Amino acid sequence: MKSCDILILGGGLNGAALACALAAGPHSVVLVEPHPPGPAEDAWDPRIYAYSPGNVDWIKSLGGWDDQVRAEAVRQMRVWGDAGGRLTFDALDAGLSELAWIAENNRLQASLWRAIGRAGNVTTLAARAEAVTWNANGPHTLHLADGRAISARLLVAADGAHSWLRTQAGIGFKAEDYRHVGVVANFATEKPHRGIAFQWFRPDGVLAWLPLPGRRMSMVWSTPPEHAAQLQALAPEDLAARVAEAGLHTLGALACITPAAGFPLVRRRADTWVRPGLVLLGDAAHTVHPLAGQGVNLGFRDSRLLAEVLKNGGDPGEIGRLTAYAARRLEDVASMQFTTGGLKKLFARDDGLTRTARNWGMRLAGGFDPVNQALTRHAIL
Ligand SMILES: Cc1cc2nc3c(=O)[nH]c(=O)nc-3n(C[C@H](O)[C@H](O)[C@H](O)COP(=O)(O)OP(=O)(O)OC[C@H]3O[C@@H](n4cnc5c(N)ncnc54)[C@H](O)[C@@H]3O)c2cc1C
After folding, report:
1. 381, part of any domain
2. CATH of residue 304
3. Is residue 102 in contact with ligand 1, taking CB distance under 6 Å?
């Protein structure tokens, strides 16, 4: 293939979901990814995310959520402050069957790739991009490390937080180091979780337990780098004991089923998400603190809207509609970055007044139904 309408660079969750969504559309699509997903393994992926019901419905409608995805529904979420504050979100109260779904990154990615394969009209190339030739008046050309070159009317940068394509385009980004590392690990639990997700705002960061199928859960402990290094250095049984204690033994004794891994957490927003013939989406465009479980959800909403904007054909790289797309995505991303960054800062402050105010705020919000339901509604989109 020498040319196509749309070339998506990066076949992680966001790039793969976009390829699935575009498969039924009028444009020819190429997906370039150096590490396509392999066959499913029994071992649990340490990268486990919460997906909003709206996004899961969308992925299911694309055929991208098959029975190899191991998923658990979140029916209730309990959040504790660090001085008696407490919020409970319940799916039933909000008139929903679940608040979110929890599933592994690798199995969902593989499921999306199977859907792309079934669709048959997306060309997938297992290759790394090495250079790009920008053309002010027409298609840009991507040069692959294996010597091939492909011209596309629209290049989509879905190549992650350290986006190579964003750098090639000379697009800068604003970044704020949260001074947190997300330490993740999965555990077998003594007691059943009953579909409840738990989150504790603690003096040493934010600890979240997400329910997995069976008696298992996935932990994300967002915490300062020094503490993260200590957690990662613990022997598996010591880590399990420390995590069980931090979570007040809510699920009884724990046993590690995957080693701990750490991800430095940085908020980023690219200076622009669109240029003629170029769009940035997912982590290439923006990253957020994982305390609200919204990073990939924002990316899926990027892909949902972009596929919608492109579905009627025409030149996919035309700047007018790309600009309209970016303008419509800005509020969702900005409000999520503001909320997660604000909460992280609010709970990082150590003075007594702030501590009292934030815990009172949680109790008030929890007791006031419209606020509680408004918070739930944003999270389920
Ligand atoms: C601790 C932690 C917990 C999180 N929890 C949640 C959660 O609960 N819910 C949620 O919604 N989000 C969560 N997130 C965010 C989520 O992980 C990311 O938003 C999401 O994985 C980004 O997906 P992506 O497809 O944009 O990028 P990536 O997954 O990084 O994929 C990018 C792809 O591009 C490819 N690539 C890179 N360079 C090139 C190149 N030069 N040529 C070709 N291909 C290339 C890579 O191989 C990769 O496959 C969490 C993040 C962290 C760190």
Report:
1. no
2. 3.50.50.60
3. no
pTM score, whole prediction: 0.93
Structural domain includes residue 219: no
Residue 123: closest CA among 60, 26, 59, 33? 33
Contact 14 CB / ligand 1 (< 6 Å): yes
Judged by DSSP in three states, 42 sits in: coil
Q: 291-318 pLDDT, tens per residue?
A: 878 899 999 999 999 999 999 999 999 9
End-to-end, the C-alpha distance of the chain in Å comes to 37
In a domain, 114, yes or no: yes
Q: What is the DSSP string of 21-78?
A: HHHTSSS-EEEE-SS---S--SSPPS-EEEE-HHHHHHHHHTT---TTS-EEEE-EEE
The verdict on residue 60 lying in a domain is no
Residue 153 CA from chain centroid, whole number: 27
Rounded CA separation 62/78 (Å): 32
Classified as helix, coil or strand, 174 is strand
What are 205's strand-pairing partners? 202
Task: Count other Cβ atoms within 10 Å, centred on residue 282.
Answer: 29
149-197 pLDDT, tens digit per residue, is 999 999 999 999 999 999 999 999 999 999 999 999 999 999 999 999 9
What is the phi-psi region of residue 340: left when phi exceeds 0, alpha when psi lies from -120 to 50, beta otherwise?
A: alpha
**CA–CA dist 304, 59 (Å, integer):** 9
Residue 129 CA: nearest ligand 1 atom is: 42
Q: Does 33 contact ligand 1 (Cβ within 6 A)?
A: yes
